[in-house]
Structures are given as structure tokens and as C-alpha cells.
Specification:
about 30% helix, 11 strands, alpha+beta, 6 helices, globular, about 170 residues, two-stranded antiparallel sheet, about 40% strand
């Protein structure tokens, strides 16, 4: 069962910050304080006050970081080549012409013999134990043992597609 836990951060800095989802995610994932996480984001992820972290800085950092005796490893399945058909759009109108697009999926859900991109809800169902950092478009949050840590919108939007996911493990 998927639940939500309100993130309680006892920090004066957290009350004035905005766009700090990466700071909150690192604090919850690695069990460090908000202030420590804020300093890491500022020095190593080039985060400015009240501004977000660029996704590629976060991904590069997570690939090589070790914080508080823990490390992050990226979750990827064996790549699968899928094809999907979309209708072509011209001048803001869909035409009857269809285009077949071929793409490679590394995070996917398999239903029968069909593959689809993984959503937050299906990721949590498949990975119900452990601590994970989940990256969706323009946002990042933490899931610990099927409990979502972050903003309330993270819990209520389980149909967002997962771009990348990292498992937090002890060294």
C-alpha cells in the first residue's frame, strides 16, 4: 500500500526556501539534516538559493556520491526496443497519417507481451522495500518502504512517468 509522509524538517532555512525538492530528497534519502543537504546542493550541485537543481547535475552527483555511509545506484532493466504509432500533427490539426517511432526503454512495466514506460505507481508496486530517489520530469522525491517523502503532489500523482530511479544502499 502506498502512503504519504509529510516531510518535517526542523530548519529555519527550509521555511524560506522554494524549489528545494532536491534538497529535501537528499536529506530524506541519506538521513542527513536539511542544512547539510542544502550545503551539498549549493557546493556540489551548483544550486542557487530559491532555485532548483538541474537534472543532469543531480544524476552526475548521484552516480558517484557517498554520504553518511550510503551510496546511490541507478536502477535499469535490460533495454527493450519498442515501437509505437502516433498520429502526425500539421498546423495544429491531426492528420490521418501515422508515424511509427522506435525507442529503447530502460525502466518499463511488462503486461503480457507489451512493454510500457514505468509510472511512479508501478515503480512503487514493484519496489516496495528499500529507499529510492525517483526523478520525474522537473522534480525529484524519495520513496522509503512504499512511503512517499516530499510534497503532497508526489503522492497524488502516481501516473507520472519515471525518468530515472536510484536505490540507496549502505556501503
Amino acid at each position: 500500500m502506498i502512503t504519504y509522509s509529510r516531510t518535517t524538517l526542523n530548519s529555519e532555512l527550509s521555511r524560506v526556501e522554494t524549489n528545494d525538492c532536491s534538497v529535501i530528497a537528499l536529506a530524506n534519502a541519506f538521513d542527513i539534516s536539511y542544512d547539510e543537504s542544502h550545503e551539498i546542493c549549493k557546493t556540489q550541485l551548483y544550486r542557487k538559493n530559491r532555485k532548483g537543481v538541474l537534472t543532469y547535475h543531480l544524476i552526475d552527483f548521484l552516480d558517484k556520491c557517498q554520504i553518511n555511509g550510503k551510496k546511490a545506484t541507478e536502477i535499469k532493466y535490460e533495454p527493450v526496443q519498442v515501437q509505437r504509432t502516433i498520429r502526425q500533427m500539421r498546423n495544429y490539426w491531426y492528420t490521418e497519417e501515422k508515424i511509427t517511432i522506435s525507442e529503447t526503454l530502460e525502466l518499463y512495466t511488462k503486461r503480457g507481451n507489451k512493454y510500457s514506460r514505468m509510472t511512479v505507481g508501478s515503480f512503487i508496486k514493484q519496489n516496495d522495500k528499500g529507499t529510492y530517489i525517483i526523478n520525474v520530469k522537473g522534480h525529484v522525491f524519495v520513496v522509503k518502504d512504499s512511503v512517499v517523502f516530499g510534497n503532497f503532489e508526489d503522492y497524488s500523482s502516481l501516473k507520472k512517468r519515471v525518468i530515472s530511479a536510484y536505490k540507496i544502499e549502505s556501503i
